Amino acid sequence: MKYFIETWGCQMNERDTETIAGLLEEMGYSPGKKDEADVIILNTCCVREKAEQKVYGEIGHLRHLKSKNPNLVIGICGCMAQQEEVAEKMRQRFPHIDLIFGTHNIHQLPRLLERARKFNEVQVEIWEREGEIIEHLPARRADKFKAYVSVTYGCNNFCTYCIVPYVRGRERSRLPEDILKEIKDLVEQGTVEVMLLGQNVNSYGKDLDKEIDFADLLQMVDEVKGLRRIRYMTSHPRDFTDKLIATIAASDHVCEHFHLPVQAGSNDVLQKMNRGYTREQYMELVEKIRRQVPGASITTDIIVGFPGETEEDFQDTLDLVKKVQFDAAFTFLYSPRKGTVAAKMPDQIPDEVKKERFQRLLELQNSISLASNKRLVGSTVEVLVEGKSKTNPHKLSGRTRTNKVVIFEGPEEIIGKFVPIKITEAKTWNLEGNVEHQGEGG
Ligand code: 5AD
Ligand code: SF4
């Protein structure tokens, strides 16, 4: 019996997919291709409308596989499925779906799957609220050398554009001992890099009985023997304390990469977004980081066309981008999400205006990204080799500590290893280089 899982969205969804795969493998399924699978699970994202449209398209496509193989079980889960009205719509529109479950009850998959097979009718189970964190679920990890480790679930911030707090529930932190045990076990099995995951990692610990914050947790993880790199995703600029910067600066393994979503450069828009900081505070944070962590790379997320955004507000965003000089930015067109505060705000921005602003921002950021990459040409950087390059299968691809993608030639045996790479060429989205052999050159 084979399974196939398709995943949209963020790292939390990718991590959930590992759990779903683990549960299915415990039931005796093994991974397979889509057209030979006995179970297909779509793990969905609802953060923007575009993601949802892709999922609807894919569900439509699966109809023909179902007609070829009536025993095929099709399941939908993740953030789209967590919204009850969306689940109901899917059920009515796509009678070939067998299973719908939400983000809070993934652990019930084995039971739901068995019921779907036995009763031959659609099984829908969505928990309205999050339950206790469930530890010790199986996981089939996507990679051997690097691993996602959840530290918090949910989000309490309620940024006005964002659907996440509605589909991922309130903030909950895992116990430090559970996190450390997971990391130590992973390291024993060959993991050298972990990414600590949460919607807002720097509020870690606020809900625990113990006195512990994210900086304390990072320090504990930094001491795990054998671990070489620590990353984390995502941190909120508002909660990025001096203690956290000092801890990162003093650590051995926390990477010099700061992903700090700014979302907008205008104080008016930031306030309407409920972000809890001003552009001045954000830029001061960046200054502090650059002073204390030399060579740090800083990346961001930016939303264009938030309701009420004027040309002047947008100019503030361009200005901030010029001043900060991000190494890279993920830019998004604002997408109204039903149920959020911003979706009901007046002055929604017309699509053409959003797209035109988006293009200007993209051009500006692309030139800044390229300039930032060019500064590395001629230097030698430590790269963790991740696998074959997606853009050029004859080459390998890996990442620097600062999270830049480097493409180079080399034997497959070095996948999973750290190698020094001399950078020879800079592109907007990645670097190219050559393995520097020890004893050769400087
Ligand atoms: N529209 C556009 N972008 C959004 N994001 C979150 N919600 C929306 C939305 N409604 C972006 C934010 C966030 C990233 C993961 O997705 O920039 O940081
Ligand atoms: Fe959404 Fe804001 Fe929470 Fe991030 S911090 S998940 S943008 S509500």
From TrEMBL:
One of its GO terms (cellular component) is cytosol. Binds 2 [4Fe-4S] clusters. One cluster is coordinated with 3 cysteines and an exchangeable S-adenosyl-L-methionine. It comes from the Bacteria. Pfam families: Radical_SAM, TRAM, UPF0004. PROSITE patterns: MTTASE_N (PS51449), MTTASE_RADICAL (PS01278), RADICAL_SAM (PS51918), TRAM (PS50926). CDD domains: Radical_SAM (cd01335). GO terms for molecular function: 4 iron, 4 sulfur cluster binding; metal ion binding; tRNA-2-methylthio-N(6)-dimethylallyladenosine(37) synthase activity. Residues 1-118 form the MTTase N-terminal domain. Keywords: 4Fe-4S, Cytoplasm, Iron, Iron-sulfur, Metal-binding, S-adenosyl-L-methionine, Transferase, tRNA processing. [4Fe-4S] cluster 1 binds at residues 10, 45, 79. Residues 141-371 form the Radical SAM core domain. Belongs to the methylthiotransferase family. MiaB subfamily. Catalyzes the methylthiolation of N6-(dimethylallyl)adenosine (i(6)A), leading to the formation of 2-methylthio-N6-(dimethylallyl)adenosine (ms(2)i(6)A) at position 37 in tRNAs that read codons beginning with uridine. HAMAP family: tRNA_metthiotr_MiaB. This is tRNA-2-methylthio-N(6)-dimethylallyladenosine synthase. It comes from Calderihabitans maritimus.
